[in-house]
Amino acid sequence: MTITTPTEAEPTTQNGTPVLKATKLVKTYGHVVGLDGVSLELYAGEVLAIIGDNGAGKSTLVKCLTGAEIPDEGTIELDGHPVHFRRPQDARELGIETVYQSLAVSPALDVAANLFLGRELRKPGILGSVFRVLDRKLMRERAAAELSTLGISTLQDVTVPVENLSGGQRQAVAVARAAAFGSKVVVLDEPTAALGVRESNQVLELITTLRSRGVPVILISHNMPHVFQVADRIHIQRLGKRAATITPKSHSMTDAVAIMTGASVG
C-alpha cells in the first residue's frame, strides 16, 4: 500500500485556478485546536469528500469555508481572489451554498417557497416594491424548472408542503435550493444520513448531476461506500490537520480508514 503525503497528494491533473482554496487555516477554541494549518483545494466540476473521525476538524474546516466560523490564521480564496467571510451570508452572496444535516427547511411551506426561502421573488411594479406581494406563480415555475434540470422526478408538484415529503425528498429540496443559488460551490454535510438505500441513491445521483453541470461539490460524510462512489478526491482530516488527499483510484476504503485512524501515516 502506497500512502501519499498531503503535498504529494496535490492534484496534478487539475488545470487552472482552484474555485475554492484554503491555505494553512488555524482555528482554536481556548486551548482546544480545531484546525492546525489545514489547506484545501477545490476545482470546477469535481466532488471533494472530507472524511475523518469525530473531532478531526471536518466541521470546523467547513464552517471556516462557509462563513460560520472565522479562522484565526490562514487565507481563503475564491477564483484566485482573497475573501474574508464574517458570516454565512457573506459566503452565500458569493455563491457558496451549504446544506447542513439539519436541512433547515420550513415544513409548513411548499416546495417552491422553500427553494426561494430568504430570496423570495416579488410581483413587478408597485405591488412588489411597495406592498411586497410575492410572485408565487413565478417562484413555482422556476422551482419546477430547477427540479427538472436536476432530474428530480420524485417532486412533480412544487405546491406540496415539505412536511408531507419523505426524508429523501426533503433532502432533495435542500440540495435543489443549494444548486439553484450555489453558483460557485455547493457544500453537503452528511446528505445521506438517516436515509434509506433508495433515497440515498437519489441524493448521490443529485451530486453527480451537480458535478456534470460544472458545479464543484464538497461532501462531508461518514459513509465510506458513498464517498468512494461519487468523490473524485478525498481530503482526510486527522487531529485538526490534513493527513492526506487521496483518490478512489489510488487508494481503497481500507487505506482511507487506516490514514484516518492513524494506523498508517499519510
TrEMBL record:
**Record keywords: Transcription regulation included?**
no
* Highest taxon in the source lineage: Bacteria
SMART domains this protein is in? Answer: AAA
Q: Which InterPro entries match?
A: AAA+_ATPase (IPR003593), ABC_carbohydrate_import_ATPase (IPR050107), ABC_transporter-like_ATP-bd (IPR003439), ABC_transporter-like_CS (IPR017871), P-loop_NTPase (IPR027417)
Which keywords does UniProt give here?
ATP-binding, Nucleotide-binding
Q: Which SUPFAM superfamilies match?
A: P-loop containing nucleoside triphosphate hydrolases (SSF52540)
- Claim: Hydrolase is one of the keywords in the record: no
Which GO molecular function terms does the record list? ATP binding
ABC transporter domain location is: 20-264
Query: PANTHER family of this UniProt entry?
Result: CARBOHYDRATE TRANSPORT ATP-BINDING PROTEIN MG119-RELATED, SUGAR ABC TRANSPORTER ATP-BINDING PROTEIN
**Protein name listed in UniProt:** ATP-binding cassette domain-containing protein
Name its species: Lysinimonas soli
